[in-house]
C-alpha cells in the first residue's frame, strides 16, 4: 500500500500543531477527514506514527523519524514546479560543453565567468577535445555544445561564429624573422622548418596553411594536433609554426610571435556548434550566452 502527498502533509500539520483541531484548521478541512488521512498513512507505513489521548497528541519514535523524511518530501514536491519552469526556460540544468585547447588560452575563462553570472543555476561540464572529436561527441549525444573550428555539416549541425583572431607565426626567440617590422609573408617561410598541423586531427589549421601555400613548398618536419605542443616544439628550436593569436597567451619562454600576411585581418574563426535537432531551451540559452559573452573578446 502506498501513501499520498496529502497524507504526508496531514502528518506534518498534526506533528507541528500537536492538536488535530488546529491542524485541521491549518489545512482548511474538518477533523474527521484529517483523522482518516493519518490512519491511512499509518496503514501504508505499517507502524503507528502518533499516540492520541483526549488531551494530547504525540509522535512515536517512528513518527519522529518519518517526520524528517516527510518534510523533505514536501520540500521536493513544492520545489518541483519551479524546477520544471526554470528548466523549460533554459535557466537551470546541466550542459556539457566541448572545447578546443586553443580556445581555453584566452577565451574560455572569461566566457564561462559571464555565463555563470547570467545562468547561476546551470551546471557546466567541460570536455577538452579537438573539433573532430567534438563533432563525434555531438553526434553521439555525449556533449551538448561544441566550441570548435569549421567546417560543419549543416544537415547535422547548427552553428554560429563567436570569435575571430589573427594568424601569427610562432618563432624561436632570436629568429631573424622576429626582427621584421612588417608582417611575415608565406614566401618568407619557404625555407623554414615548419611544424605543421595534422590534416586529420587539426584539419582547420592544416587547410588554412595549405590554402596559403601548397604543401609541397613547406619544409615540413613535424605534424601535431595541439597548438600547445606546436609552441613547445618551437621553443625547443624544432622549427616555426602558424598559430592562432591566442597561443601567445601560453607564455612559453623561448618563443616570440609575429603577424602573418593574410587576405582577412582576422581569419581564424571559432564557432559554437550544436545538433540541428536539439530543441532543448538550455542548449539555445547557452549558445545565446556564448555569443553575448564573446562580443567583447
From TrEMBL:
Keywords from the named record: DNA-binding, Transcription, Transcription regulation
Alphabetized SUPFAM superfamilies for the sequence: Periplasmic binding protein-like II (SSF53850), Winged helix' DNA-binding domain (SSF46785)
InterPro entries listed in its UniProt record: LysR_HTH_N, LysR_subst-bd, WH-like_DNA-bd_sf, WH_DNA-bd_sf
Domain HTH lysR-type: 1-60
One Pfam family here: LysR_substrate
Domain of life: Bacteria
Signal peptide interval: none
GO cellular component term, pick one: protein-DNA complex
GO molecular function terms attached to this record: DNA binding; DNA-binding transcription factor activity
Family the UniProt entry places it in: Belongs to the LysR transcriptional regulatory family.
The protein's name in its UniProt record: LysR family transcriptional regulator
Organism field: Leucobacter tardus
Amino acid at each position: 500500500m502506498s501513501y499520498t502527498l496529502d497524507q504526508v502533509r496531514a502528518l506534518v500539520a498534526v506533528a507541528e500543531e500537536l492538536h488535530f483541531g488546529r491542524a485541521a484548521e491549518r489545512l482548511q478541512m474538518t477533523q474527521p477527514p484529517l483523522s482518516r488521512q493519518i490512519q491511512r498513512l499509518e496503514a501504508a507505513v505499517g507502524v503507528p506514527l502518533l499516540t492520541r489521548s483526549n488531551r494530547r497528541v504525540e509522535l512515536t519514535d517512528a513518527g519522529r523519524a518519518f517526520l524528517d523524511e516527510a518534510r523533505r518530501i514536501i520540500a521536493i514536491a513544492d520545489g518541483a514546479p519551479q524546477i520544471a519552469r526554470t528548466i523549460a526556460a533554459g535557466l537551470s540544468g546541466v550542459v556539457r560543453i566541448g572545447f578546443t585547447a586553443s580556445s581555453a588560452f584566452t577565451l574560455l575563462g572569461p566566457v564561462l565567468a559571464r555565463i555563470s553570472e547570467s545562468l547561476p543555476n546551470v551546471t557546466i561540464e567541460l570536455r577538452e577535445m579537438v573539433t573532430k572529436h567534438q563533432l563525434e561527441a555531438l553526434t553521439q549525444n555525449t556533449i551538448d555544445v561544441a566550441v570548435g573550428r569549421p567546417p560543419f555539416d549543416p544537415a547535422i549541425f547548427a552553428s554560429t561564429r563567436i570569435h575571430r583572431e589573427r594568424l601569427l607565426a610562432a618563432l624561436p626567440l632570436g629568429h631573424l624573422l622576429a626582427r621584421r617590422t612588417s608582417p611575415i609573408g608565406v614566401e618568407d617561410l619557404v625555407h623554414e622548418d615548419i611544424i605543421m598541423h595534422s590534416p586529420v586531427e587539426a584539419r582547420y589549421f592544416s587547410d588554412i596553411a595549405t590554402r596559403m601555400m601548397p604543401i609541397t613548398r613547406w619544409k615540413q618536419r613535424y605534424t601535431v594536433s595541439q597548438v600547445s605542443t606546436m609552441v613547445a616544439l618551437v621553443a625547443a628550436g624544432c622549427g616555426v609554426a602558424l598559430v592562432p593569436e591566442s597561443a601567445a597567451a601560453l607564455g612559453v619562454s623561448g618563443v616570440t610571435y609575429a603577424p602573418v600576411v593574410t587576405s582577412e585581418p582576422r581569419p581564424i574563426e571559432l564557432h559554437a556548434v550544436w545538433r540541428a535537432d536539439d530543441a532543448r531551451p538550455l542548449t539555445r540559452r547557452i549558445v545565446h550566452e556564448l555569443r553575448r559573452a564573446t562580443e567583447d573578446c
